[in-house]
Amino acid sequence: MVIFRFINLVTFCLLSILLGGCDKTPPNQLQQVKASNTLKVGMLVGPATYYQGHSDEEGFEFELAGAFAQELGVKLEVIPFFNLEKLFENLARGQIDIVASGISFHPSRDEAFRFGPYYREISQKLVYKQGRQRPRHYGQLEAPVTVLANSHHLLSLQEAKVENPNLKWQTTTLLDQEELLLGILNEEIDYTIVDSHSLALFRRYHPNLSIAFSVTQSDPIAWVMKRQADDSLYALLMPFFATMQNNGQLATLEEKYFGHVTRFNYVNTVAFVEASKQTLPKYAEWFMTYAKQYDLDWRLLAALSYQESMWNPRAKSPTGVRGIMMLTQSTAKSVGVKHRLKPEQNIRGGARYLANLISRVPDGVSNPDRTWLALAAYNVGMGHVRDALKLTVQQGGDPNSWADVKKRLPLLTKKRYYRSTRYGYARGDVAVHYVDNIRRYFDALVWLDENGALPFSSGE
């Protein structure tokens, strides 16, 4: 019997060797990813992480994960989730490789999951609807706080209850973060907690959300993986994020998705949303017509116009620029505008001028950076923008990156920098704020348009 078993074992091993080895070690996680040619990444759907844009998938985490997949030489497969419970369940079961969703570190999570290197910091804000009595600490809350189940927000409330025994909350798995914020606005929910970057994005078009107080000040966020002995994929996160940090790609993504929303002005935002519904309809058809003619997004053209004139066709500055697109006399002449106070002519001229500026941006610059540089040139002139590009190169930055050029434009106000440039002094700091404002207006118009909140149809 023993001999028979031995012969069977030898036979099995010989067959195994022929098929790939008797005691072949199972493939590690990295080998599995490579073999499948796919990196499976779980993401919460939302404006700060991953969403379906106008023509393609977009989002800070989506692009970051795409860069990691490219580094590995595999395809990115995004697996979207709408609540944290399902996201973490799938990670624990090994059905996804990584969670890339702006997850903040907490010691209790570290027991079951592994956090990669920290790459951003956020804070948690307790929010309520503008117009209600502002609570300045937990003791002044008049109702329970509603938060996402399994979130860091819930962990923060549990910790706060130690010193605030009367603190109450309720959790939900049915709503996502944006739906919670809409619940605040619709007065279906009294209070919730939201991460600072998500709130900044949401308040572009819903300014009536107010911050009661900061729940936390500085939470590090990172990608999350299942806790296991296999380090093959996890070990690559540190060098990847180090490279992204050192080559400026991380800063470029930060600028693309969050760089223009760091400032919030309640009065200004309310006025813009109101004007979008009351004033914009008078001129929307012309924005659409001439944006299409010059291959522009009409909402970008309208956002530029609001920044220039607040959609006032008779606007006039002390320096002589006039009209709804605020064209100088020489610029108006160059784009065929005879009467700057006639809004249709002015919009047509502004569209033509912006398209011309975009075409004059150096060829190496791709969108959206190309558009942001053209908008800066609309404000300070292409000559000054080219000076900023040269300064960027001289200081070791990337002239094709708006994030890098944005840092150098304000230097044009300082003599030690502008005296060596071709065009000299310029209010580059103003140009930076100018572009940020237009980007906020543009984002808001896109959201209002795509959610049917404008009193007309754009056909987009």
UniProtKB/TrEMBL annotation:
Pfam families: SBP_bac_3, SLT. InterPro entries: Lysozyme-like_dom_sf (IPR023346), MltF (IPR023703), Solute-binding_3/MltF_N (IPR001638), Transglyc_AS (IPR000189), Transglycosylase_SLT_dom_1 (IPR008258). GO terms for cellular component: cell outer membrane. Its EC number is 4.2.2.n1. GO terms for biological process: cell wall macromolecule catabolic process; cell wall organization; peptidoglycan catabolic process. Keywords: Cell outer membrane, Cell wall biogenesis/degradation, Lyase, Membrane, Signal. The keyword Lyase applies. The active site is at residue 308. Residues 38-261 form the Solute-binding protein family 3/N-terminal domain. The keyword Phosphoprotein does not apply. In the N-terminal section; belongs to the bacterial solute-binding protein 3 family. The N-terminal domain does not have lytic activity and probably modulates enzymatic activity. The C-terminal domain is the catalytic active domain. PANTHER family: MEMBRANE-BOUND LYTIC MUREIN TRANSGLYCOSYLASE F. Murein-degrading enzyme that degrades murein glycan strands and insoluble, high-molecular weight murein sacculi, with the concomitant formation of a 1,6-anhydromuramoyl product. Lytic transglycosylases (LTs) play an integral role in the metabolism of the peptidoglycan (PG) sacculus. Their lytic action creates space within the PG sacculus to allow for its expansion as well as for the insertion of various structures such as secretion systems and flagella. This is Membrane-bound lytic murein transglycosylase F. It comes from Pseudoalteromonas luteoviolacea. The lineage of its organism: Bacteria, Pseudomonadati, Pseudomonadota, Gammaproteobacteria, Alteromonadales.
